[in-house]
Design a protein that fits this description.
The protein is about 25% helix and about 30% strand. The protein is α+β, with helices and mostly antiparallel strands. The longest helix has 19 residues. The protein is globular and about 65 Å long. The two termini are about 30 Å apart.
Length: about 290
Amino acid sequence: MPRNHVVESDGVFPEAYSGTYDPHLTLVMSSKATQLGFLILITALLVSNYDRTLSLLSPYLRAALDRLDPSSSHFEDCMGHNYTTEILSIDPLLIYITSFVSPAESSALLAAGESLFESSQVTVDGRDTTTSDRTSYSANLPLTHITSCISSRARAFLGATLPVGDIGAPQLVRYTAGQKFNLHYDWYDTPQVLTKTGQRFNRPASFFAFLEANCTGGETFFPHISVPGEGRWRAHEGGTAFMPVEGNALFWVNLMPNGRGDTRVMHAGLPVEEGRKTAMNIWPRGFVV
């Protein structure tokens, strides 16, 4: 069976900005040099009188941060977010995560990716291409406070259990009526190479979170994993099909202990019958020496 692999790209952090927030205190940050000088000034003030300076500057720093990155308003809530887990399969490891993403976070992530969607690609023989096996749209998110926080949550979830070298910015995937992603693996047959560093990597694990589930159909199907029970999932063709539930996520391990891909975690995005489904991929990178 063909092995198609989802393509990801690096995010870009926004550059400098300028803005005015108060007639008595104007903060203009139009260059990196100005930003550096401003940072040095704040540092000096904090050292001399920490509490009073922080109290004075907090409203302006909050406004400046929100102007630079609107998603930052969700950052504090993101860091204190709680979720629950349920182990569905031990070997291979598959975990169901309830409320992995909050409604506010979902809205912020969807807003960040709305203008970035393009036809989804797969990696075949080391080359990126479109194919009838994958007919969805994808959006590689820029690095912002909300994406950084979600990535940090994924890293905390992993703990020290997997050899993870990096977690890139999340990728959104959108399916409308009739769109699908046939059976595939997230791991690579041959480790890929990061263009900027030349490092070789694979994907030791995957997170797949549902952000928008205004649809019928569109389940995520694992043909080689059978999970008893009904509700958020159902039996399908000898395996299990997981229904899109906003905020919930699936986590699974892609690689065997010897570093080879685990064929048992082959999965598919079943066709959406009506409506629209938007989900989020997070792929930790495991670097290969």
